[in-house]
Amino acid sequence: MLNEELKIKIAQLLPAIEFEEGGEWLNIHVPSQAFRSLIVSLRYDAGLDFDYLFCLTAVDWKTHFTMVYHLTSTIHRHHVVVKVKLDRNNSEIETVSDIWRTADMLEREVYDLFGIKFLNHPDLRRLIMPDDWKGWPLRKDYEDPVNMIKL
Amino acid sequence: MLEEIGTTAEGDLIINVGPQHPATHGVLHLVLTLNGETIKKVEPHLGYIHRSIEKMCESLSYRQFIYVTSRMDYLSSHINNHACALCVEKGLQVEVPQRAQYIRVIMDELTRIASHELWWGAMAMDLGAFTPFFHAFRERETITDIMEKTCGARLTMNYMVPGGVMAELHPDFQKDVKNFIQLYKSKFEEYNELVTGNIIFQNRMKSVGYISYADAISYGCSGPVARASGVHCDIRKLYPYDVYDKVVFDEITETAGDSYARYIVRLKEMQQSIHIVEQLIDQIPEGEFQAKTKAVLKLPKGEFYQRVETARGELGVYIVSEGGTTPYRIKFRSPGFSNLSALEHMVKGLKIGDLVAAMGTLDLVIPDIDR
Amino acid sequence: MDVTKSKAQADFPGEIHETAGGGIVLSKLDEVINWARSNSLWPLTFATSCCGIEMMSVASAKYDFSRFGFEVARATPRQADVIIIAGTIVNKMAPVLRRLYDQMADPKYVIAMGACAISGGPFFYNTYSVVKGADHVIPVDVYIPGCPPRPEALLHALITLQGKIKAGLTREQIKETSFLNP
Q1: pLDDT (tens digit, 9 = 90+) per residue, B98-129?
Q2: Per-domain boundaries in chain C
Q3: CA distances (Å), B305 to each of A59, B92, B149, B349, B365, in order?
Q4: What is the ipTM of this complex?
Q5: SS3 for A116?
Q6: Cβ–Cβ below 8 Å for B49 and C147
Q7: Which residues of C touch B59 (CB under 8 A)?
Q8: Peptide bond before residue B240 is cis, with ω within 30 degrees of 0
Q9: CB distance A116 to A46 below 8 Å
Q10: What's the burial of B337, exposed, middle or buried (CB within 10 Å: 0-12/13-18/19+)?
Q11: Domain around B200
Q12: Number of residue pairs across A and B with CB atoms under 8 Å?
């Protein structure tokens, strides 16, 4: 389906969505309360069928976080990018690891590097950094005078 | 680490595989829960080669960060560089000359053959056969010699830059590649005689490490791992970049979904790669090898995503730019990360020897997973 | 000082006196032991990242290292003599490296291969997890520059290590003799 048709279909699911202009794929911004129900419909609704989550990441914008999910469908070959804005001091979002099994390890990595908590995740703990590491390394305000030598 | 090892309440044994182990192809630490020799749970512990590449790239310019990505999945280093160059070109909206596009695709396919050769030799060595290792390295040395004359390095060659390639081809390049194509076509009977037709090898690989079509998609598998379960996911066919839409090649899929199917997919991919090189080597057009770009590159504000097919699967480069000379955030979607998450599903209930066989066919390169 | 040009560079360290009925070889026990040890060093398969592939190339048929005595590459540190640190060492891996070194039996030697093992290499600036040089963790005898070094460079380093052992200048041997001359 083309971007225009997808836009119409998704706007029917949730009228409070904002679409971002530009970019090669359809970018949608979702408020975090409506996130879970939208994601379930994106996965299971006929005609949408986004069954392949190929990238899950977070971006630190200094005042807030944005979670970014890149989805595609192996049946219809269309793409969508779902973005959720999170508050910096209280960053929590529901997990999607029961819908796409790949999100299990991807969400652990985001927790490890950014400190974003995923509610109802089966096993949320550090993945890449040592278990007793303090701090969230990929945040923009991360200071580590012992290890990091700045150029 | 040490305090986890022991026995659980039910009498199961918990042991470590790695991080220093000859069969894990890098520093992967697996904690196995075993009942006798049967595996009940596999838990990968990562991070033993986490070099904070994503954080480092936030302070490097758009021309500088490409050298670091060669070292992520070092066996397909040209393809990694190609992905980053394509993503930066997408942002700059610059047109790459045809000559550079042909050269890039030929180098990519030669890298794919070299990577699959090393996979084949190392996997046979894991299962106990030491001879294929030397045969595989013989071919690999020929390819790296060809590349060394043009690119200057054998393993981590920073040859692709935003706009094209860094230097002109060596005058011997076409002759060397044509000699290699002649030599290589006769090698497949040798490989089949040595390893594929061996009855012990087949018994160790058939029906071991099965993953179904739906599970392969759900676990995010890509590359030969997913294609062996029937998923059509070759990025070179679905979303072609550079001159992949002008060459004729097959996308190899199998339906069995076990280790033997993954092995056959990779062997046939080597044949398809040499077929692609054969089609392109005589058609390289004359012209510039690099488009004119400014010395200091600035991407406009926005986000750019590029997907390419490395030897392991689908690599994604996601650049978030704020308009400056350095990226604001880079994320590398690595194929090995998602392939590894399917390992537990594949080997539950099997024996330790089957774990080694299944892990060999996943073709993991750990720095690609940890970044 | 040039460690490769020592008087023990001939086939066998010592003087050979031809006499009737065979001959007599006159030598120092230390030199004979050093000669024997240097020609039979068993490496540990320890490769963390890209330099490991160049080490595998050296093990294969084109740049063979088994002609120098490094034939038997052991997977367990308890049976190995030399550890070739090929690749970057990060904070999580450093205790593992230390434990492997401690598990090796004396006499043991260390080669740091590649820019990452010498000083952190390309990952020196702006990284929070890389140990800037393997010699922060274990003492090193030979350093090989390069990213990754060519297989011939690794062979040169192995021959240099052999020369160092024959000349008695590795850290192991200096440690032993300093007991005798405090």
Answers
A1: 999 999 999 999 999 999 999 999 999 888 88
A2: 43-180
A3: 14, 13, 32, 39, 23
A4: 0.91
A5: coil
A6: no
A7: 125-126
A8: no
A9: no
A10: buried
A11: 49-370
A12: 74
